[in-house]
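Progress narrative, work stream C.
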Amino acid sequence: MVMPLKCRVILLLAVLSFVLTGCSIYSSQLNTIKKIYTDDTKALAKYSWMLSFGSHQAEVFAVDQGDVTVFGNHLGDGIVLKDWELRELRGLGRFRYIWQIFHKDNYRMFYELGAFQGSYQCQKWLASESLDGMLYKQSCRSSAGKQFDNTIRVSQDGQATEMKFSILGESEPIVLTRRYQ
C-alpha cells in the first residue's frame, strides 16, 4: 500500500521535525498530526493504531522514517520509538505525561518532566514462532530489581500488529494495537 503523496509529504515533515529536535515532541508538531487527522482520516486508516495505557484509549497514527516511528493523534498523545525501543511519550490520558528515555551504555534512563525517575536494562529481543506469525520478547530489569517484559507481535506477512512496553516495571504497559490489518 502506498500512502498518497500529500500524506507522505506532510508526515515526512512531521517526522523530520521530531528528529531534528532530538526526538522531543512539541505542540507545533502535534498540531501537524492533528491537522493530518482532520484532513485525511480515511487515507490514514491503514496507519491507525489503538493506544492503551491504563484506562486511556485513543486512536493514533504511525509514521515511519528509517529507524524512528512516531505515533500521534489530535488529542496530543505522542510516542516515539527508535529501533523498537521507547524514546519519548506525551499525553496518554488526563495526566498529560511527558516522559523521556535516554540510553547510556547498556542502561535506559527514565525521566518524567525532566526529573530522573530510575533506570532499567533490557536484554536483546528474542523471537519465537506463534500461530499468527512471530512474537518478539525483551526481558528487562529496573534498577529497583523489578523484572518486566516488552513484546512485539508480527503477523505472517511481516507487519507489526501489537506492541507492549513497560517502563521500570511499575505501571501498566503501554499497548499499541494495529487497527486495520
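Work stream C, second folded protein:
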Amino acid sequence: MPLINGINDATLDELLQNAIDHHNDEEYDEASLLYKKILSVSPNHVDALKLLGKLSYDRNELQKAIDLLEQSHHLSPKEPTTLFYLGEAYDAAEDIEKAIGAYKALIQVDPNSIEGTYNLAIIYYQLNESSEATKYFQSILDQNPNHEDSWNYLGLIHHENDDNREAERCFNCALQANQDC
C-alpha cells in the first residue's frame, strides 16, 4: 500500500468512511474535520473534495461548496454525483445558467439520472420554458412512467397552455402513478 505523508490508502479510506458517517448523521463539524484531514494529506482526493463541497452546500455555504465541487469536477469531469451536487449548488446560488450546464453535463454522463433530469425540468418550468420543461419531464416518464411529480408538472404545463384535455389526462396519470397510463 502506497504511503502518502505516512498515511496509507486504507487509512484514507477509513477516514473517508468515518467522515461520511458523521456527515450522514448531520455531525457536520466532525465530518468537516475529517474531510479536511484527508485533503491535508491528499489535496486532490476527489471524494473528499466532493463530499466537503456537499457538506458546505448542506451548511448553505454556497460559494465554498461551488469552489470545492469545481475542484472535484476538474479532477474527475465525468463523475455524476459531483455534477449533480454542482447543479444543486449553482441553482441554490441562483446561477441558473451554470446549474443548467451542470445538469446537462450530468445527463450526458448518466442519461438515467432521474433526479438530475427532474431538477433540470423544474428549472426550465420556473423559467417558463415550457417546451424544454416538457422535454425533460417526458424523458423522466420514458424511464419511469410512475413518476407522479412529472405527470403533475406536465398537467400544469398543458393547463397553462390551455390544453385542458391533455392536462386532465396528465393529472389522472399522476393519480394513477403506480398503474399503467
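The two ends are 55 Å apart (CA to CA). No further action is required on this item.
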